[in-house]
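About this split. The held-out portion is used to measure sequence recovery: a designer receives only the C-alpha cells and must propose an amino acid at every position. Recovery is the fraction of positions where the proposal matches the reference. Here is one held-out target exactly as it appears in the evaluation file.
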C-alpha cells in the first residue's frame, strides 16, 4: 500500500509519506524542497534540490501547469522567446519500510526548439548543523567524512560517476542521502563558507540536446534515521541505479 499523499496550496505542494512531512515550492524563480517534520517533530534544517532550472534563463520564468497525478507531483514551465526550453519537474516519493527511509526522487525533463543546446542544470542541497559524508562508489565502506573548512571541493565525472552524499543531523535524529543517477551525472561540488551550511551542488545532463528530443535526468534523496545511515544509503542508491527510467508521460 502506497502511503504517499500530496496536497496543493498555491505555489506549494505538501507531501506526507511515512514519517516525513515536506513541501515543494515552484514559482517564477525555480523549484525547491524542504523538510517540515520527521516522525511528528519539527525538522526544518534540510533544503533539497534547490534549482532555477536549465539555463541560460531570464530572471523569472512562468509556470505553465502544476498538478498531482496519482502519488506524484508535476510542475511544467512554459517556453518563451527568451527561454526556449520547456522543463518539467516530476516529483515521486516512496517509503522504504525495511530501512525506515523516505525517498524523494526528482525526474527532470527538458525539451527545446533550438537545433542544438546544452541544458545543464545545477541543484543545491544542504543541511544545518550536520556532519557530511561522501563516497565515490556505492560501498558503505567507501565513505569518508568531509571536514569542515572554507575550501570548495570539485568532483568530476572523469574520476567517478557514483557520488553519494550523506548529511547527518544527530540532534534531529535525521539523515539525508543524495545521489545523481550515473547516466545523468556531470559534476558535483561541495561548497563551504564561514558561518554558513555546507552545500552540495549537483550538475546534470552530460551531453548536448537536439531539437525536439526529450531528455530526462534523475536525482534521488532519502530521509532516514542516522543509525546505520551510510550502509542504508549505499543500499538504496544501488537499488536506484538498477531501476528503469520511470514513465512520466
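Reference sequence for scoring:
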Amino acid at each position: 500500500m502506497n502511503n504517499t499523499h500530496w496536497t496543493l496550496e498555491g505555489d506549494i505542494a505538501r507531501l506526507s509519506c511515512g514519517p516525513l512531512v515536506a513541501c515543494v515550492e515552484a514559482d517564477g524563480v525555480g523549484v525547491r524542497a524542504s523538510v517540515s517534520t520527521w516522525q511528528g517533530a519539527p525538522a526544518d534544517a534540510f533544503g533539497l534540490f534547490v534549482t532555477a532550472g536549465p539555463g541560460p534563463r531570464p530572471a523569472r520564468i512562468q509556470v505553465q501547469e502544476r498538478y498531482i497525478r496519482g502519488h506524484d507531483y508535476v510542475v511544467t514551465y512554459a517556453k518563451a522567446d527568451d527561454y526556449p526550453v520547456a522543463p518539467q519537474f516530476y516529483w515521486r516519493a516512496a517509503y522504504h519500510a525495511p530501512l525506515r527511509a523516505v525517498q524523494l526522487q526528482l525526474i527532470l525533463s527538458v525539451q527545446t526548439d533550438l537545433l542544438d543546446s546544452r541544458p545543464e542544470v545545477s541543484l543545491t542541497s544542504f543541511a544545518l548543523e550536520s556532519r557530511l559524508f561522501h563516497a565515490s562508489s556505492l560501498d558503505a565502506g567507501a565513505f569518508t567524512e568531509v571536514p569542515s573548512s572554507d575550501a570548495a571541493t570539485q568532483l568530476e565525472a572523469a574520476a567517478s560517476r557514483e557520488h553519494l552524499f550523506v548529511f547527518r543531523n544527530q540532534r534531529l535524529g535525521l539523515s539525508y542521502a543524495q545521489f545523481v543517477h550515473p547516466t545523468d551525472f556531470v559534476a558535483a561540488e561541495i561548497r563551504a563558507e564561514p558561518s554558513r551550511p555546507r552545500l552540495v551542488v549537483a550538475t546534470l545532463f552530460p551531453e548536448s540536446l537536439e531539437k525536439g528530443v526529450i531528455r530526462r535526468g534523475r536525482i534521488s534523496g532519502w530521509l532516514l534515521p542516522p543509525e546505520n545511515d551510510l550502509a542504508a544509503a549505499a543500499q538504496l542508491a544501488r537499488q536506484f541505479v538498477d531501476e528503469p527510467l520511470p514513465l512520466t508521460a
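Annotator remark: The CA atoms of residues 86 and 195 lie 37 Å apart.
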